[in-house]
Design a protein that fits this description.
Layout (H helix, E strand, L loop, with lengths): L1 H12 L4 H15 L5 H13 L2 H15 L6 H22 L3 H10 L7 H10 L4 H25 L2 H4 L6
Length: 166
């Protein structure tokens, strides 16, 4: 049982997959293993999704700027920096002084490339305060979890595997 939750935890830490991929996996796991606790799974996935956030905030920008000129990794690092800058600029333009709410909604809307990793990188590039950015990302991850959980339940992902709809 521990190994199943560990897989969910590690899946939630992977960029681009994050919570958006780990939660449907939890529902599939619940279908195959009915003893799986959904609430515990949600908490483990949220922790796994949030664990990289401080490292991204403090180190990703420095690593990306260091590596953008390197021969093998330069293109990818430049892409990451540009994606973060574009995301940050869009947030700043739309939000103005409501940057906290904008960051929370950016992370909370479950679309590809709008998760905790990208949101934290954007907050770092926008020079947001650490505490504000982490709180906005936590709220966004909770919002995304609620949306995805609702979609998995209502749209029938759980029903495909024998989980009754809410």
């Amino acid at each position: 049982m521990f190994s199943r939750y560990l897989i969910l935890f590690l899946t939630a830490m992977v960029p681009l997959i994050e919570l958006r991929g780990a939660l449907p996996a939890l529902y599939v796991m619940k279908g195959f293993y009915p003893e799986t606790n959904l609430l515990l799974g949600y908490v483990i996935i949220a922790i796994g999704n949030m664990l990289p956030v401080p490292f991204i905030f403090f180190f990703a920008r420095k690593v990306l700027e260091w590596g953008k000129d390197k021969p093998v990794i330069g293109k990818f690092f430049t892409f990451c920096l540009e994606k973060g800058h574009k995301g940050g600029e869009k947030l700043q333009a739309k939000a103005g002084r409501g940057l906290f709410v904008a960051l929370m909604l950016f992370v909370g809307i479950p679309l590809p490339g709008t998760g905790a990793w990208t949101g934290t990188l954007a907050a770092s590039l926008l020079d947001m305060k650490f505490k504000d950015s982490v709180l906005a990302v936590v709220c966004g991850v909770a919002l995304a979890g609620a949306i995805i959980g609702l979609c998995c339940t209502v749209l029938g992902l759980g029903a495909w595997f024998g989980i009754p709809a809410a």
